[in-house]
């Protein structure tokens, strides 16, 4: 399905993705090396994103599961690289190679770029206005992980709103906001600035009271008039 209603059909060649699964031998190897994980050794104390846990998190928190599903995603048309979605980890690189080789079908694979864990500070988003301007410093707009969110779309929509408002401010025009009743951007911003965050924030349809009305097939009716109004 194309992103734009002005696109009649997608003509670009599509690539297949595949499914793989971990096994008990993978899980046993992870359990035997948990002391090597910064998240479990205490070297990192952050709370990871709830909705995309590391493979060691899955093994520890769901011990009754004999396997975990993996998505095998090609990186492009002219490469043999694939992205192993669902196997994020903070274990050392040499262990990652050993673990991946234990996955059925991956016995001969080579890791090109190992996974890693990060820890970052953020600004309390309750210090932001509905326009994503900081209340402490006029003219400074923040968007993305610095506001305590996680995810590409979450960062992109904040960048859109913060960028619009930074541009309007430089032109001396009044600020622009989206209401939670008319858009998921509005839900996200309202959640951030009123409730704050105690874990990386993710935008889900279940967070919206108006989710039956906020659909991709009526996005043009809801938001195109706003875009036209603001040029």
What can you see in these coordinates?
With 231 residues, the protein is mostly helical. The protein contains 7 helices and 3 strands; from the N terminus they run βαααββαααα. It has a 3-stranded antiparallel β-sheet, with no helix packed on it. The model has no long low-confidence stretch (mean pLDDT 93).
List the helices and strands and how they pair.
Elements: E1 18-21, H1 24-32, H2 38-41, H3 55-61, E2 69-74, E3 82-85, H4 93-101, H5 152-170, H6 184-195, H7 219-229
Antiparallel strand pairs: 1-2, 2-3
**Averaged pLDDT:** 93
> How large is the share of residues in beta strands?
5-15%
Which value, in Å, is the CA radius of gyration? Answer: 21 Å
Lateral strand order in the biggest sheet: 1-2-3
Unreliable residue stretches:
none
Class by alpha and beta content? mainly alpha
Instruction: Provide the succession of SSEs.
Output: EHHHEEHHHH
- Count of DSSP H/I helices: 7
What is the total tally of β strands?
3
Basic shape: globular
Distance between the termini: 27 Å
Provide the helix percentage.
25-40%
């Amino acid at each position: 399905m194309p992103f734009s209603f002005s696109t009649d059909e997608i003509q670009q060649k599509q690539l297949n993705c595949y499914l793989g699964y971990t096994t008990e031998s993978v899980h046993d190897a992870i359990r035997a090396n948990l002391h090597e994980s910064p998240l479990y050794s205490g070297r990192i104390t952050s709370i990871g994103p709830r909705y995309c846990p590391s493979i060691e998190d899955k093994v520890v928190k769901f011990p009754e599961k004999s396997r975990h599903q993996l998505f095998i995603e090609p990186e492009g048309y002219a490469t043999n690289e694939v992205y192993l979605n669902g196997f994020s980890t903070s274990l050392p690189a040499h262990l990652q190679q050993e673990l991946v080789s234990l996955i059925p079908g991956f016995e001969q694979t080579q890791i090109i770029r190992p996974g890693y864990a990060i820890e970052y500070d953020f600004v309390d988003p309750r210090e932001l206005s509905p326009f994503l301007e900081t209340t402490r410093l006029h003219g400074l707009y923040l968007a993305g992980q610095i506001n305590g969110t996680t995810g590409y779309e979450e960062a992109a929509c904040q960048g859109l709103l913060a960028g619009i408002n930074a541009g309007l401010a430089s032109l001396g025009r009044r600020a622009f906001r989206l209401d939670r009743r008319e858009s998921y951007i509005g839900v996200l911003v309202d959640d951030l600035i009123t409730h704050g965050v105690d874990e990386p924030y993710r935008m889900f349809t279940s967070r919206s009271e108006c989710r039956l009305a906020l659909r991709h097939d009526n996005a043009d009716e809801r938001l195109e008039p706003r875009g036209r109004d603001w040029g």
